[in-house]
Amino acid sequence: MSNQHKNIDDDLFLENEPEKLEDLEDIECLNADPLKQLKKEDNITIAKSKMILAKKLLYNIKENNERLIQLLTNFLSVEDEASIRIAQLSDDNFKSNEENLGETKIIEGVFDGENMIGPDGKQYSVPANYSSKSKLVEGDILKLIITATGAFVYKQIGPIERARVVGVLERSVAGEYFALADGQKWRLLTASVTYYKGESNDEVVILVPKNGESKWAAVENIVKKIV
Questions:
Q1: Which residue(s) pair with 163 in the sheet?
Q2: Measured distance CA(164)–CA(150) in Å, rounded
Q3: For strand 162-171 and strand 203-209, is the pairing parallel, antiparallel, or unpaired?
Q4: Bridge partners of 110?
Q5: What are the extents of the domains in the chain?
Q6: Superfamily of domain 162-223
Q7: Which stretches of the chain are DSSP H helices?
Q8: Residues 137-180: pLDDT tens digits?
Q9: How many whole angstroms separate alpha carbon 100 and alpha carbon 106?
């Protein structure tokens, strides 16, 4: 009888054993570090899903950029872009960056050969010495930083493509300097000419926009005439 009772007890124990084992696993899960458990799940599922989502977003951005470039390319021809002069740029067709950083103000604009034209159409004086030293060309994009003390600090951030032209230096009765070449005439900054000690009939090497027309040119060098 004792053996029979023992066998019955063993059978009952085995029937209940899976439930006990499951209870032990639940206890272990409860006692486990929740951060480790979360990290394990992240590594298996969440991190991978985030990477897939980021990859799809990047592909979407790339496709949208390509479509936008293609749309603008089909809309504007090379002749249209060349015909637009700097003076025609305004708040409607030139997007610039203007922001306030505390007491510091930042404005981006276009160099018209003598001044910077802001997005609001206002003119900001560019020091002639800076324009001459940097050899700024009409159409270059500039960034103006107005400090808390009111100082103007310029930086060239978008130089346009340039063409080099050799011409003859000319001075008007009013004292303005010009460069003449191939039937065209460009105004020159006085500071640029005086830096090279240029005089009328000297050979002058200038920089002008490669595409489109311009009224101003940057002096790259002046070759003195032989007396």
A1: 208
A2: 36
A3: antiparallel
A4: 117, 141
A5: 2-73, 86-158, 162-223
A6: Nucleic acid-binding proteins (2.40.50.140)
A7: 2-31, 34-41, 47-75, 78-83, 128-134, 190-195
A8: 999 999 999 998 888 999 999 999 999 999 999 999 999 999 99
A9: 7
